[in-house]
Specification:
alpha+beta; nine-stranded mixed sheet; eight-stranded antiparallel sheet; globular; binds 2-[O-phosphonopyridoxyl]-amino-pentanoic acid
Length: 312
């Protein structure tokens, strides 16, 4: 998250959070230093957004995000005590308790609590928290410059990328910090075979000769819910979308490129490794899909009204 966001949350934390089934005050939840997840990364989480429409605040694809949280927990043998209905209630309760009406980010997290110091967490508490915060842009600019990371994306043989696990983000954080310190906005990670995988916290699409390409599941990506949304919207708009391995050099010869994710939404990429993407400006298909995405999440596209859960 950007510095500006971090500062505003630090100055202004939410009044209420949801913790293990009920609403608590922010300061009421205290965690032991020996919380297992703090030491070993044993947590899975998700990131969800809610957007104001003309007359309400709507959560985008809430059920899909909660189902991903549930399968992330399953991969790691976390015995999650709550199902999708209870978690849905929790998300609604925590937003309502805080009275948020503007753009909101929701972070449910399932983690191994304190039960000892060893790796075997059998019998340790599995804690569940849901936090919601006011949140606008992830990237504080309309288009970004990216660098192909010297770090490779984690692979399925070691840390399954399909689980949105806290520990996976050490890989993302290394790549992100390298990119920022080298003067870029974001990293693009290659998979263990050398094909394009994704950004540190976003999926990636490229456009060449009017056709849109994105890496497949086998390229060590998180199966993004925004990625799925974008693929559906692109085909609604009449574009051909192909999931296939993408070579690093294709990043340098494509006409357009963009990141997408819950936090990042649709973010155009205008430069990669000091080469302009296309003519170095935001491309027409990227613009079109960015606008189409906002129409859906902000409730202006009735075809996808079923993806919105009203809060109030
Ligand atoms: N890939 C990675 C590694 C991600 O962390 C994310 C989401 C995505 C892809 C996109 O997934 P989705 O479209 O389902 O959101 N990242 C988090 C998010 O809330 C933020 C992590 C800092 O966007």
């Amino acid at each position: 998250m950007g510095l500006r966001l971090a500062m505003s949350i630090v100055d202004n934390p939410p009044t209420y959070v949801w913790f293990n089934g009920s609403i608590k005050r922010w300061n009421e939840v205290q965690l032991p230093i020996l919380t297992h997840a703090l030491h070993y990364g044993t947590a899975v989480f998700d990131g969800i957004r809610a957007y104001p429409s003309a007359d309400n605040l709507n959560i985008f694809r809430l059920r899909d995000h909660l189902n991903r949280l549930i399968y992330s927990a399953k991969i790691y043998y976390f015995d999650l005590k709550y199902g999708v209905e209870e978690l849905t209630e929790g998300v609604l309760e925590v937003i309502r308790a805080n009275g948020f009406k503007g753009r909101t980010y929701i972070r449910p997290i399932v983690f191994v609590g304190f039960g000892g110091i060893g790796l075997d967490f059998t019998g340790f508490p599995i804690e569940v928290a849901i936090v919601a915060v006011p949140f606008d842009k992830y990237f504080h600019k309309s288009a970004v410059r990216a660098k192909v990371s010297t770090w490779r994306r984690i692979s399925n043989e070691a840390n399954p990328p399909l689980a949105k696990a806290a520990g996976n983000y050490l890989n993302s954080a290394l790549a992100k910090q390298e990119a920022i310190r080298d003067g870029y906005d974001e990293a693009i990670l290659l998979d263990h075979r050398g094909y394009v995988a994704e950004g540190s916290g976003e999926n990636i699409f490229i456009v060449k000769d009017g056709v849109v390409y994105t890496p497949p599941t086998s390229s060590s990506i998180l199966l993004g819910i925004t990625r799925d949304t974008i693929m559906k919207l692109l085909s609604d708009l009449g574009y051909k979308v192909i999931e296939r391995d993408i070579d690093r050099s294709e990043l340098y010869i494509c006409d357009e490129a963009f990141f997408c994710g819950t936090a990042a939404e649709v973010t155009p990429i205008v430069e990669i490794d000091r080469r302009p993407v296309g003519n170095g400006e935001i491309g027409p298909i990227t613009r079109q899909i960015r606008d189409a995405y906002l129409d859906v999440v902000e409730g202006r596209n009735k075809k996808y009204a079923h993806w919105l859960t009203p809060v109030y």
